[in-house]
Amino acid sequence: MFCYQCQETAGNKGCTKIGVCGKNEDVANLQDLLIYTTKGLAGLVVKKGKACAKVYDRISNNLFITITNANFDESAILDAIKKTMAFKEKIMGKIGTEGLSDVEKYLSYDDEELKRKAIEVGVLNIINEDQRSLVELVTYGLKGMAAYNHHANVLGFRNEEVDFFIAKALAKTTHKDKEVGDLIDLVIKTGEHGVMAMALLEMANTETYGNPEITEVDFSAGKNPGILISGHDLHDMKMLLEQTKGTGIDVYTHSEMLPANYYPEFKKYDNFHGNYGNAWWKQNEEFEKFNGPILMTTNCIVPPKKNNTYLDRMFTTSNAGFPGANHIEADENGYKDFSAIIEMAKSCQAPENLEDIKVVGGFAHNQVLALADKVIEEVNSGNIRKFVVMAGCDGRSSKRNYYTDFAQSLPKDTVILTAGCAKYRYNKLGLGDINGIPRVLDAGQCNDSYSLVQIALALKDAFGLDDVNDLPIEYNIAWYEQKAVIVLLALLSLGVKNIHLGPTLPAFLSPTVVDFLVENFNIAGNTTVEEDLEKMIG
Ligand code: SF4
Ligand code: SF3
User: Fold this and answer.
1) Cα distances (Å, whole numbers) of residue 431 to 327, 328, 409, 438
2) What is the DSSP letter of 348?
3) Is 432 helix (H, G, I), strand (E, B) or coil?
4) Residues of the binding site for hybrid [4Fe-2O-2S] cluster
5) pLDDT tens column, 288-317
6) Which positions bear Cysteine persulfide (predicted)?
């Protein structure tokens, strides 16, 4: 195996024996084969000129399932490979096989043959370091985009341009004569389509569940048994709330599901208790104490430790999977029957209280723009000197204490704009407010970074500026998995410069690609809190 797609990759070089995330060699190789065969299907879609929604969904699901910490289940990956083969076979039946490449033509339904092939098709097959770096940068960006696209699709929202672009970009990464210049263009185009996918998801979420509102979220535990829901899928959240109504079971969000608390549609449910716990990487300890069933709707799953007892209380759904956990699939109408989770919860004890704290969030762009006059007034009067976008992912590395220290050391006339699970590094610090404007404005999940861009663009217009980089906004982004890659590419495609990216630069960026990003976008890594504060705030 060789995998270097996330920030925690071994030695900041690559995982070669087992993933730091817990992914084993067989799953890692099969995920490589799934990407390979998905690229083959994408090539066929491009040759055909279009595809039906089912094929596009297959492509998005395949990419999503390989995101860090989403799925550790070999049988789920094999199943996805075979379903992809079936679509390939169908398309080849229509367009024939003449002129097709090896990746497009490859077909097999035999487990042993697939496992043999899986060893052959890894990342290191591209020998040229710069080509490999750019191909992986595009592929990881597409994984993040596909996840956001999937969440919009299940709510009935679709943008065919995004669907077709994902196929086209995947197909382009397989071309034999890839020029570095063409691949760089593809990176930027991936970012542009990432913006479209995030816009689509924002439209899907707000049209379905209303605009996020400023909300004080309770992090304490109640007296009733509960179900904990984690991940990013708001459609699952809605179905769970609907099915637990009147059962005496409370629902709690975890990690990236926290922003569900901000949506008017979910506030209607009396049994929606609040949030339990922190970012994904603390789950071994927190799931143990929760006592009730846990539903993982997407990444990020941490494999339970030997002394953990909650595996039989853990449920996964759609692209999330873990061997030994209970898996719930949607029926042909997209409905998921969560009765097994609810029945289990009834026999469980209430969660152990972790903390008595309330945290305010819900500052997506619609809400911030409602406060725009006040924000502009505070900037003009000098009470707000700068905004610092600190969006992205959290992770276990001790280096990430940097973000807590950085937030704590920011001068009191600065405001943090955040989204994603990165917020857990500073959302409980009690950083106060500036004349009623909280100093940490949480827009929501990682995809809601789109909201932060909308806020920046609105401020640019309000201040009559031509360039978004002239705003008093700094970017200090934390990344972990591939959704953060598409957020980064989206920001670059919108012309945002001077982004600090940490806690380490991606291992998959070759020196040439880093030079390109520095020259064109002035991207920088992190240094020390003091040095970075000096650079960003002065
Ligand atoms: Fe390693 Fe990250 Fe890949 Fe897991 S996803 S195998 S931690 S690089
Ligand atoms: Fe977090 Fe996994 Fe990325 Fe959605 S939950 S931001 S790491």
Assistant:
1) 40, 41, 10, 8
2) S
3) coil
4) 232, 256, 300, 393, 421, 446, 481, 483
5) 999 999 999 999 999 999 999 999 999 999
6) 393
